[in-house]
Specification:
The chain is of the alpha/beta class and about 290 residues long. The chain folds into 2 domains: about 5-220, Alpha-Beta Complex (Spore Coat Polysaccharide Biosynthesis Protein SpsA, Chain A); about 250-290, no CATH class. The chain has 10 helices and 11 strands. The longest helix is centred in the C-terminal third of the chain and has 19 residues, at about 220-240.
Length: about 290
């Protein structure tokens, strides 16, 4: 029998998008799913848009007073009981084969604690957002050892695409901290995956449609977001370098040199093209970052 997948889907005032979002989950090719649908005190008519879908036996519907995104995610995780726990957002759209692809990958690679996917960026109407080179995409590294390094510079997953393997990582360790909002996901990846015991990866296929919404939380207060981002990066550096004190490296060059040393030790695992590409990507990321 197929493993059940619990899919955590919190939403708040997303009436224009929530029906399409939930439908994309219920129409997955992988049938053994449970959707933990959390209405975080919405004040719009979002529930009326999905009332018929909520009656699906695979949906566990929870309505609560507004507690915020991080706390809603934590509630969903506390309810989840499956070996595999996936994420989805109320304004995003799942590719029909996303859950099936991730489950298959985790079964083939049981040492992985989590797997994400690439994502296609869509606009508020659900259309592909195009750049100068075609449809805009979000793609992260796929090599576990290299993803750990990238934590010191940037988020390593499309948050709404992630699936946790709770045979490797205890679900009680998966706890989002509201003080890092709206980057609670990046803070959690640092907390969990700076630990070299936990290997993670990403699928190269764009199996999530990530919607860019005007006025979203991540776009509202750029000054605060920069402060939160810098704080998380400092935490990542201390964890990565094994330091328990506040004073970490003073420049991106010190970080880059340490990462290069590790890459050279692991070079035999990768093709020359991948190896050189990663060295360049690390350089490009770190040279533009202030850790102070």
């Amino acid at each position: 029998m197929k493993e059940q997948v619990d899919i955590i889907l919190p939403f708040y005032n997303e009436a224009p998008f929530i029906r399409q979002s939930l439908q994309s989950v219920l129409e997955q090719s992988y049938s053994n799913i449970r959707v933990i649908l959390i209405n975080d005190g919405s004040t719009d008519d979002g529930f009326s848009m999905i009332q018929d879908l909520v009656n699906d036996s695979r949906v566990t519907y929870i309505e609560q007073e507004n507690q915020g995104f991080a706390q809603s995610l934590n509630k969903g995780i506390s309810i989840a009981q499956s070996k595999f726990i996936a994420r989805h957002d109320g304004d995003d759209i799942m590719d029909r084969y996303r859950i099936e692809s991730q489950v298959e990958h985790l079964i083939r690679h049981p040492q992985l604690a989590a797997i994400g996917t690439a994502a296609k960026i869509i606009d508020e109407s659900g259309n592909s957002s195009n750049g100068s080179n075609g449809p805009r995409m979000i793609q992260h590294n796929t090599v576990p050892e290299l993803l750990r390094f990238e934590l010191t510079a940037d988020c390593i997953f499309v948050h709404s695409s992630i699936m946790f393997n709770c045979a490797i990582i205890d679900k009680h360790l998966i706890k989002y901290d509201p003080k890092f909002s709206p980057m609670e996901d990046y803070a959690l990846w640092v907390e969990l995956f700076a630990d070299p015991r936990f290997k993670v990866s990403n699928l190269t296929e764009a199996l999530q449609n990530y919607r860019e919404v005007t006025g979203s939380m991540i776009r509202r207060d750029q000054a605060r977001n920069e402060r939160v981002l810098k704080t998380i990066r400092k935490v990542a550096l201390r964890k990565f370098l094994g330091r328990g004190r506040e004073n970490g490296p003073r420049s991106w060059r010190q970080v880059y040199i340490r990462e290069c040393l590790f890459l050279f030790k692991s070079a035999w695992k990768y093709s020359l093209v991948v190896f050189l590409s990663e060295l360049f990507n690390l350089y490009r990321k770190h040279r533009s970052i202030s850790y102070r």
